């Protein structure tokens, strides 16, 4: 089974694991993709990059022919035998099983005699070109692992283009041109894959190798995947690690071998001669007995399995990834941006598993308040770095101290956090609760703690209790209450509410003081106050 797994990583890993036996712990990251295999040393773990085995992809293909009525036999017609242009009584009849050549026969099991094949109508409309597009669609991204091989039952076409699509048939690129005369057919210099190198491996060439005529025994056309691999892995593909190293780092190279669709554009049938024999147009047609496409499901190195459901392929994604190609992280596992796994094991490569995001906040990363995340290995978690817009928290999902949540703004709104704006003199600190209420000092009120309760008065340093007022704390003995902060007392009185006689406290100095006061301040004092003092002295 392993021998048949061409280009499986098996060979590579056996080599690598013997080299790297002294790093057993690092393999832990590849746990999901290890399998037990038997070697001379007994049963061992075989560590491999997470990818499904290569297999025959033709089983899963959907074929479309253009024009749709190009298959022979409707109405029935006769054609000339291969290699014998003068035996022209062969029959194609779509209504008779033995004489029909429908497209399915390109994909059935061969190895029987006579082989079964699809066949086009003959070139009876010459000189109008006889052209056919054969489109093979997988509706799944596939990585080719072996040559594409097309076996013609007729001669190989004079002109043909193999095209590929990477986007389910929306756009197409040529893969290779095939012609008996590249310059004449496509204005290209003929080349063969052997003329390429590591540096030119992605070049699209026109080859004359597979178009040599009508009469030869060669029936096969290749698109040479292995020869291209060999530029990196050596002629017998011994050094696959080198190829995988390149594939890990060069997306263009990876994409070159990746397809979702193939299109065989048959442009001119085999004629074998310079001139078309107009007397025997039934000699010219296309017939294909077999198409072989070997590859594996592209799962971005996040799956070892690829299952078939209703003739369609799906990666069985691991590493908490999802999508037909495991091309994204599962919901709630978007703790860091998705990336493909790598072919090479740790320490050179990594599985790049998807890691959980904080489930209560869903899969949003930093709500747009930071564009930088940092992975904390120890906690197996990521945090947003330098949250902006007055946010904080692992996902910038909280407001900084001194700010509160704007109830009418979404979490990703720039205005999500509002300044508490607590009055610095009226508040205990600069923080507020979720509705913006600050914590007030005694005697202080208001959302922002900038107002005073009854019985308190705002000073430069906040609310202070009233010293005097018109109700409970009236100034006595004719004193006046100044701005609730103090009583202005008549000269003979003192005390906070002017409740004390000055002489009472200091009888010795009473007359002297009062006299001085009277003399010094006499003109300024109200007459009643002056009289009162004098009267007091009299008694
Ligand atoms: C084949 O496909 C090409 C586009 O890739 C198109 O231009 C051409 O007309 C098609 N030929 C036929 C016979 O449908
Ligand atoms: C291709 O596959 C997707 C699922 O991945 C499916 O929804 C879609 O219908 C398929 N398209 C065709 C043409 O089969
Ligand atoms: C995927 O997530 C689950 C649940 O958190 C976890 O148990 C599992 O180990 C994860 N798988 C990988 C390969 O990290
Ligand atoms: C709260 O958010 C809404 C929506 O963005 C915005 O219009 C409003 O100005 C914000 N309120 C404050 C006080 O910033
Ligand atoms: C914030 O404080 C105010 C005043 O104490 C209170 O009425 C309100 O319910 C508090 N809001 C929250 C969300 O705790």
UniProtKB/TrEMBL annotation:
Domain EGF-like positions: 464-499
Gene Ontology cellular component annotations, sorted alphabetically: glutamatergic synapse; presynaptic active zone membrane; Schaffer collateral - CA1 synapse; side of membrane
Keywords: Cell membrane, Developmental protein, Differentiation, Disulfide bond, EGF-like domain, Glycoprotein, GPI-anchor, Laminin EGF-like domain, Lipoprotein, Membrane, Neurogenesis, Repeat, Signal
All residue ranges annotated as the Laminin N-terminal domain in the record: 46-296
MF terms (GO), sorted A to Z: cell-cell adhesion mediator activity
CDD domains: EGF_Lam (cd00055)
Job of this protein: Involved in controlling patterning and neuronal circuit formation at the laminar, cellular, subcellular and synaptic levels. Promotes neurite outgrowth of both axons and dendrites.
Highest taxon listed in the record's lineage: Eukaryota
Pfam families membership: EGF_laminin (PF00053), EGF_LMN_ATRN (PF24973), Laminin_N (PF00055)
One BP term from GO: axonogenesis
Residues annotated as signal peptide: 1-28
Annotated membrane topology: Lipid-anchor; GPI-anchor
The species this protein was found in: Chelonoidis abingdonii
Stretches assigned to coiled coil: none
Residue ranges of every copy of the Laminin EGF-like domain listed in the record: 420-465
Gene3D superfamilies the record matches: Galactose-binding domain-like, Laminin
Protein name: Netrin-G1
Disulfide cross-links: 420-432, 440-449, 489-498
Main subcellular location of this protein, as a coarse class: membrane
